[in-house]
Amino acid sequence: MLAYTYVERGKFEMREKPLPRLIDPRDAIVRVTLGSICTSDLHIKQGSVPRAVPGITVGHEMVGVVEQVGPAVSTVAPGDRVVVNVETFCGECFFCRHGYVNNCVDPQGGWALGCRIDGGQAEYVRVPYADCGLTPIPAVVSDEQALFVGDILATGFWAARISEITPDDTVLIIGAGPTGICTLLSVLLKNPRRVIVCEKSLERQRFVCEHYPQVPVVSPEECLDFVRTLGNHGGADVVVEVAGGDDTFRLAWECARPNAIVTVVALYDKPQVLPLPDMYGKNLTFKTGGVDGCDCAEILQLIAEGRIDTTPLITHRFPLRNIEEAYRLFESRSDGVIKVAIENTEHNAKLF
């Protein structure tokens, strides 16, 4: 089958690989129908993910159809349309039982697909712990609507959930990339008093203004003064940092009012400084870490009800065989690209 493969730092290439097989009774094999490219895939290519294993098939944003299940799988069956979760988790360890599935202690737990084991930029993918890692898609929800549920939408939903947003709050979201937009959609579900987006890219500023005209958008240079003026208590009640830029961590805590919550979703390429003397007396609460992607069923129901729609994020489409062209576009951030859908309509290899 066709599989886009991490060869070495700076190099991905399309390769022919054997079809995946069930290894564990809790495995499932999924025929990938639609996938996408994530910024985390670029981090692997750039050598910024030390745990990534050369030779693995990349890709962790995908939906598909279940083709085969192990004897211990009970929640999905062949023929089911499913969302594939970015995280692998057993559902049984201490962390899983408390909803902290990103910290699953299983050797394949956490972000494994497309990083430490073969992922979904391929015709088929093996999903460990299928009862946890696969969520059936309601009949009224299309593949396009469900595409981001298992990763960036789960991330935005999780960020909004842990940020303790109330109807009286002013919420600042730093970053209007794909994950930032998914965070915005999830924050809006909480009905805060106001939401502000900070974004440096003019194209992404225009995207927010076009699709979410009720949300003011500011540049990083004007953000601090704008938030202090608009916020009721000298800053935002909640700040969600999704950008991961050189100065966005500092901007996040500077824009927060005293006793605010600062939720850090962003991935940074280098360590950040926590200047405690400068922030002394602000009494901030920081929440950080990787997404606990255990809300997929709830998110799919919200999509089915018409309360979340991420399809405007899909700005370009490519067939799997042209994925290298898709990567060039996504890496360059040209032509107004937000997210790329990788269509896998031609399955040259057959599982049976």
What features would you describe in this structure?
- The chain has 352 residues and is an alpha/beta fold.
- It folds into two domains: 2-151 and 293-343, Quinone Oxidoreductase, Chain A, domain 1; 156-288, NAD(P)-binding Rossmann-like Domain (Rossmann fold).
- The chain is 25% helix and 25% strand.
- It has eleven helices and 17 strands.
- The chain has helices at 39-45, 94-97, 130-133, 143-146, 152-162, 178-188, 202-211, 220-230, 248-255, 296-304, 323-332, and strands at residues 2-8, 11-16, 28-36, 61-69, 81-84, 87-88, 110-111, 124-127, 134-136, 170-174, 194-198, 217-218, 236-241, 256-264, 285-288, 314-319, 339-343.
- Strands 3, 4, 5, 8, 9, 16 and 17 form a seven-stranded mixed sheet that branches. A six-stranded parallel sheet has the order 12-11-10-13-14-15, sandwiched between helices.
- Helix 5 packs across helix 6 (178-188) and helix 8 (220-230) packs parallel to helix 9.
- The protein is globular and about 60 Å long.
- The chain starts with a strand and ends in a 9-residue tail after the last strand.
- The model has no long low-confidence stretch (mean pLDDT 95).
